[in-house]
Amino acid sequence: MSHLPWKPIRLRNLEQEIDQAFDQLIYGQWGLCPPSGNWQPEIDIFETLDFYLVEADVPGVDPDEIHVTVDQHSLTISGWRRSGCVEHSAQGVCIERRQGSFVRHIPLDQAVDPYHVKRENQAGILRLQIPKQKHRPPA
Fold first, then answer.
1. Angstrom distance (rounded) from CA 44 to CA 37
2. Can you tell me which residues the record assigns to a coiled coil (predicted)?
3. pLDDT tens across 37-62, in order?
4. Phi-psi bin for 25: left (phi > 0), alpha (psi -120 to 50), beta?
5. DSSP secondary structure letters along 79-122
6. How confident is residue 84, by pLDDT bands cut at 50, 70 and 90?
7. How far apart are CA 130 and CA 50, in angstroms?
8. Domain 37-83+98-131 class?
9. Cβ of 27: how many Cβ atoms within 10 Å?
10. Eight-state DSSP code of residue 13
11. 103-112 exposure pattern, b = at least 16 Cβ within 10 A, e = fewer
């Protein structure tokens, strides 16, 4: 009986790994590039006692095309990434970079202050600092 090394599957990346496997199977053997389509920016969320810190990878997205909505218990990031090719007579030979609209909706465990969100977009990374609501002692 042969024993293969055990490699745990990271569920967070399972869908992406399956897509890559099928793209490799279907397109790779013919030397073709997979078609482009909708995409989702990858997001990291950190929490401190006072705030949530959210970082989203949004390379190639115009900061004016990113919309952030915060309410007491959720965050929504939406936007649009356009094609980088401005030459209208150009024909795509291999299009791998995803483009189009995206929406990420993130529920937050604790109530936050939607009026004092700090936002920074630098080097293709959107950073949000979302303060938590201060708990007031009962009167």
1. 23
2. none
3. 567 899 999 999 999 999 999 998 99
4. alpha
5. EEE--S---TT---S---S--EEEEEEEE-SS-B-TTS-EEEEE
6. low
7. 9
8. mainly beta
9. 13
10. G
11. eeeeebeeeb
